[in-house]
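Case study 2.
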Amino acid sequence: MAKMGTKWTLRIVLPLALLGAGLGSVGCETTEDPEMPPVPTPDLAKPKVDSGGVKEDLTVVPEIDMTIVEDDDMTVVVEADMTILPTDDIGGTDDIGGGGSDAGDGPAVMPCGNTQQSCGAPGACQDCTGNQGGQACVALKCGCNSSSDCPKGFACQANGQCDPTCAGGLACNGGCCDGANCLVGNDNGKCGGDGKACAACGGATPTCTAGACTATCVIGGMGGAACGMGFCCDAKNQCAAIGNGACGLAGGACNDCSKSANGPTCLMNGTCGCAKAADCAANQACTAGVCGAACDMNTPCNGGCCDVANKKCLAGNLQASCALGMAACGTCVANAMGTACLTINAKTFCGCKVAADCAVGFSCDAVTNVCTNKCDANNLCNGGCCSAAVNGTCQKGIEGTNKQCGNNGGLCADCTGNPNGKVCVALGNGGVCGCAAFPADCPISSTGCVNKVCNNKCDANNKCQFGCCGGNGACSNGTVAAACLITGMAACVDCTTNNAGHLCRPGAMNNNACGCDKAADCAVGFACNVVSHLCVVACNAQQACNGGCCSAAVNGQCLAGNAPTACGAANACVDCSANVGGHACINGTSCGCNKSSDCGALQACDTVKKLCTNVCTANQLCNGGCCSGGTCAVGSSNTACGGVGGACLDCKPGASATPTCTAGVCTSACGALANGVCGGGNCCSAGKCVGGKADATCGYTGACLKCGNASTGKKCLVPVNNNWSCGCTQKSECFAAAGNQAGQTCDTNSSTCTNACGYAGAAAGGCNGGCCLGGTCRPGVADNACGVSGGQCNSCLDTCNAGPKCNAQNGSCGCTIANLDGGTLSCNTANSCFVNPNAFRAGCNLATNVCCVPGIYNLKGVGNACCTGMDVNGTCTCNLNGVNAGAPANPWNCCSLSVAGNGTCQCLPNGTKTNFGLGAEPRACCSNHVGAANSFNCICATKGQTAQTAAGCCANLMFANGLCN
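Prediction:
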């Protein structure tokens, strides 16, 4: 026997047919609970007998619902965890010997699993899912252990059953409890979602949303909840604490006072405004709780000051309206501390920034910004002057001696020795150095006192007190070269540019004059006459020139000395025009050269020594000719050619396109005496070297060949060995056939044109025009040797196809004559030329010049190549009577084979001869009928016979549809 509480896993396999008749025999598979120790598997087929002989029945109580699975073999498999509990014998004893059961035994009753899905007494199991009384199995019936076992809005009562009441502090499943009943919990006054006591929403969270009090609000409460005391409803419909950023009455709309023009403070009445001036913007006042520009003595401004007269807040930074620490604006006008309204270190006061902010005679202290009478070189006075550069005091600039003078606030001036005057005269806020009387108050160089200032300029109207008036407008003592006093002249004379001399030479009684003592006292190119002390152009060996040279040792003249014919810085000039050192005057001192043209012919200039030489280099060119091996040469040789002084050129006769030296330049001249020979792929044509690869000018050197008329070929051949010559590479480069002149072909072995053809070395395609016959090129115009393609000739004499005549234009066989009357057929009339018996070729298609069979035989045409008319559906047809027979008239185009005098087709009336040399031809008759074979007469068509026109019908017959009737 299993002990109480042993847990088994049973697998019951039942045939499907036994489900309706009871369980029948049961086979059990057991699996031990992993939490329990192993126990023997009980035999459920028969009861066990304990040691006292008392039997025990096993009652199987499943813990979970059994699952019935239908297998493919119609066997039901029931799987469930089972608890095996021992019970007393229900109705009988086990007959040990008989193996039977008690008389009262019936079908087995399955116990419930004591779970939510299987709850109750055996045989009366119930599923508690969704049960109003509770969804848990409690004491074998549906009930609850907590509110979570109940439906939404129910509480678990003390009796283990669910009920909507919640008195006594019971918790609801969801929603909330109002103290008596479970509610949904979405009412603003009764809000909750955790099953606990309902809460009344208000204050900052007036609205119940999903069982919780939230800040959502509606202004005024219409259609929703309003915020409570201390809160207003903002633009996002959320309650906000009343303050400057959210101002309003409780439950009303919020306003942001930071954006209000009335002020940034939230007042007790729920409006934005101010309580004091500091609540307003700068330079505004708080009046009756509203910020604005209006002010008075009792309503101060926030910063700045109040213009009491105009009752308006001002910035307080102006001279006439300065905020000096009081509510009302003050003024700095005429303030001894300074007339500027200053704000420094957050303090506003009257002071100064510059001297002009102070009274006249005072300076501005740059440290204190207050006016003072102290001054120095950096702190100037307002007017007057400062007595010293360091630790000075402001002076009026006109009082006292002439040594304390000034009116611009700078350092005082001493007028002693001042060019404007020796005394201090009043001017502006002080004085300036000037004059009151002339000449006592002015320097000796002055010419007068004008407007209390000494005039230090001289001119014709302002005479100097002594000396003379210089060119700079200032008086001079007249003894210097730049300002020389000459008797009788008020103005000084400038001798530094005077031709008489650059000295101011003193004379008796100040009779000074411009002159010289030596050549250096004269202008360049002049000499000094030591007797007259005047500068002159005359020179000699003892009277030297100032610069340049003297043209002669006696009775000479001063020259510049830089001319090639008069060169030198010494006394005597030198002529360089024939000097071997050079023809140029170098630096005005000696003869030499600067460039090759300064030297004689075929000489070069040594630019370092500035002398001519016959040595030349790449940078030292010759004067004419050219430089050959470092020496100047004439430059007229074909191997040493040049004319501009550079390196000689080798014109390379026999190896270039410019083999001849002409006037110092290599040129293409050739063919004349002393000319060079063309070469290097160039040949001589019409006296000039040209490229030798052209067909008209062919040759690697020497005279050019003209290949256009060469019998060897028309092409200029340029082989590797430079043996350039006229020849050919293809037949088109040889003479072409023309008239009775045969063409040529190219022998590709020798690259030469020849009349021989048809052999292995001949160019492909045969002769250049004409044709090849018997190994020789022919003109191709003969009837027995016809062709223009250059290939093998055709013989037209033995061909029926096309004709026996050679067409000289295209080299094809054909015909030329079509008229049977008065002419000889050019087509072959031999019996060997036939298509079928009695059908010989006797017609010539003048359009194609090909012999053809007349259309009267109904032969098929090819395209439009039909000799007797048009090609209709591939069949040759003839032209009817009256239609043009061609130009010239061709009877083979006519159905009647006859042509009228005007060149049109005509049929022959009855009784007309039809012999065209072909025998009696019925198609020539209008009736399509002839008489006896030898009569050649057209006869009339009788009734029912065919005819071409009514003219072929017999008398009294009508012609219709090609028949006579």
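The first strand starts at residue 6 and ends at 15.
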